[in-house]
């Protein structure tokens, strides 16, 4: 067994109990499943059917074991039957045969039965895993071929028709017919045994993600912070009273299409504190290089349904509202393929202006700020209560995985009453002596009813060697090619920033 697969299948054993199904869900559209299977085996080879697998099971990931460790169970052969009985399948099984069709009459007349021979059933079983295994091209070719032969052909009274003449009446089901996706095992045992075995496997079609709602009061920026986990079950199977865990960490999983890498996203959910261990909260524990997060209660996950579980709630989170003016506007369609040597000497690069001032929310993910929990990547929605107490939507964005004590800075939209203007006032390039000079003027206007501070971000993009002389305001160098001015603005005030930059190479 490969180490990764062994990890995937074993990581939820600690919470999996007798008579209970267990799920460990990764936010990369797959999960591991653990279920109890009652077995009554004779000595030697036994054929056993397991009709409860998902429609997206990875058959070669299946493990069957005795959870008590007293018996060795060896699967000699396994067949995955994903052809549950349906009208189409029954027509297919009876191709070439003559069966009865019930024709329902109208106007109170009695129903009648006609006989028809099934020339072609029109049944095409779709491989639900083809897209994952072979990619889009194979999958859509398979779909096109299926559509070309999906009409049934029935011979009635010597004539062919492309519709069913009535409701088909089939003979009894064969012994090998399955009613839903089924694993069929040939199990070899050294002696007769009766036990509750455990089956574990990896399945697609299951995922989870985080989302956050942040609410500010009518005045101020002290936030209420709520986080949800949404679990999406598209496996083709309903799980009842399942013990659910969510995995946080970069888990490597091979992509069946080309053997490349597919990783489960790193995520972290809230950790219950020691004094709330008995409350109904999501709890966390370490496992190897990862973290497992357990839902507080067994839950039902219905097929084709989503479920939300609250996993973090905090009040009194202090946040700052930040205004940022990044005035340079770069047309990526025009300049995206240019090399730095070309950009360095281009007269037009970086001269377009962006008038929008960004609104950003900033707060620290720390215990002193009533958070201090690892936050998985997800959508953050911001709201504010108006003077009448109504909650109004302000904007949303995505955050990446954020560890404890890290700063969150989230863009939520553009300021209406703060305007920026940026223009170049001087440019000279001397290629022979390896230098260029450039000067800019930036204007900020505040039309709000209160004072604000705007962070003006400027990018020194022409070359790595640069110096600034005679700037109008003090700036902060934030990295090798970025600087920032912090400009206070009173109500209805305009402020002007200017600076010259000298590049050399």
Fill in the keyword field for this structure:
50% strand; 6 helices; 505 residues; single chain; elongated; nine-stranded mixed beta sheet; mainly beta
Please, could you describe this protein's structure?
With 505 residues, the protein is mainly beta. Among the domains are: 30-83 and 178-204; 87-169, no CATH class; 319-365 and 406-504, no CATH class. The protein is 8% helix and 50% strand. It is built from 6 helices and 32 strands. It has helices spanning 3-10, 87-93, 130-134, 136-148, 332-335, 340-344, and strands spanning 22-26, 30-41, 44-50, 63-65, 74-81, 98-103, 112-120, 153-156, 159-161, 167-169, 182-189, 193-204, 206-216, 222-233, 239-248, 251-254, 261-264, 283-287, 290-294, 299-301, 305-318, 320-326, 356-364, 378-385, 391-399, 407-430, 435-446, 452-459, 466-468, 475-479, 482-489, 494-504. The strands form 6 sheets. A 9-stranded mixed β-sheet has the order 29-32-27-26-23-22-28-31-30, with no helix packed on it. Strands 1, 2, 4, 12, 15, 18, 19 and 20 form an 8-stranded mixed β-sheet that branches. A 5-stranded antiparallel β-sheet has the order 9-8-7-6-10, covered by helices on one side.
């Amino acid at each position: 067994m490969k180490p990764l697969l062994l990890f995937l299948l074993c990581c939820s054993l600690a919470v999996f109990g007798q008579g209970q199904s267990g799920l460990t869900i990764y936010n990369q559209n797959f999960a591991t499943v653990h279920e109890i299977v009652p077995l009554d085996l004779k000595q030697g080879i036994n054929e056993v059917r397991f009709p409860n697998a998902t429609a997206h099971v990875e058959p070669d990931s299946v493990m069957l074991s005795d959870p008590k460790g007293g018996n060795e169970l060896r699967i000699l052969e396994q067949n995955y039957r994903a052809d549950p009985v349906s009208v189409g399948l029954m027509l297919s099984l009876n191709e070439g045969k003559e069966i009865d069709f019930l024709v329902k009459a109208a106007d109170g007349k009695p129903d009648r039965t006609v006989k028809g021979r099934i020339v072609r059933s029109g049944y095409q079983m779709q491989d639900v895993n083809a897209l994952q295994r072979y990619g889009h091209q194979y999958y859509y070719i398979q779909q096109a071929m299926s559509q070309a032969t999906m009409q049934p052909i029935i011979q009635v009274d010597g004539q062919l028709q492309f519709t069913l003449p009535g409701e088909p009446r089939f003979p009894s089901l064969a012994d090998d017919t399955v009613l839903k996706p089924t694993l069929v095992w040939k199990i070899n045992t050294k002696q007769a045994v009766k036990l509750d075995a455990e089956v574990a496997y990896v399945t697609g079609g299951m995922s989870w993600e985080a989302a956050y709602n942040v609410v500010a009061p009518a005045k101020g920026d002290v936030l209420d912070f709520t986080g949800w986990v949404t679990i999406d079950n598209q496996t083709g199977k309903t799980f009842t009273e399942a013990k659910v865990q969510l995995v946080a960490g970069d888990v490597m999983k091979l992509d069946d299409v080309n053997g490349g890498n597919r990783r489960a996203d790193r995520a972290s959910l809230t950790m219950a504190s020691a004094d709330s261990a008995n409350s109904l909260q999501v709890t966390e524990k370490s496992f190897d290089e990862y973290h497992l997060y357990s839902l507080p209660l067994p839950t039902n996950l219905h097929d084709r349904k989503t479920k939300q579980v609250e996993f973090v709630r905090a009040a009194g989170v202090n946040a700052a509202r930040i205004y940022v003016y990044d005035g340079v506007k770069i047309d990526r369609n025009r300049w995206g393929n240019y090399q730095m040597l070309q950009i360095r000497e281009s007269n037009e690069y970086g001269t377009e202006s962006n008038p929008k001032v960004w609104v950003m929310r900033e707060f620290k993910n720390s215990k002193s700020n009533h958070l201090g929990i690892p936050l998985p990547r997800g959508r953050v929605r911001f709201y504010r209560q108006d003077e009448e107490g109504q909650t109004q939507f302000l904007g949303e964005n995505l955050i990446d995985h954020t560890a404890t004590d890290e700063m969150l800075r989230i863009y939520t939209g553009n300021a209406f009453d703060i305007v920026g203007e940026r223009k170049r006032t001087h440019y000279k390039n001397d290629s022979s002596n390896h230098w260029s000079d450039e000067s800019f003027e930036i204007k900020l206007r505040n039309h709000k009813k209160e004072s604000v501070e705007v962070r003006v971000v400027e990018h020194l993009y022409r070359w790595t060697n640069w110096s600034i002389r005679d700037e109008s305001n003090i700036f902060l160098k934030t990295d090798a090619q970025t600087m920032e001015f912090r400009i206070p603005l009173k109500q209805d005030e305009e402020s002007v920033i200017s600076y010259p930059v000298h590049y050399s190479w």
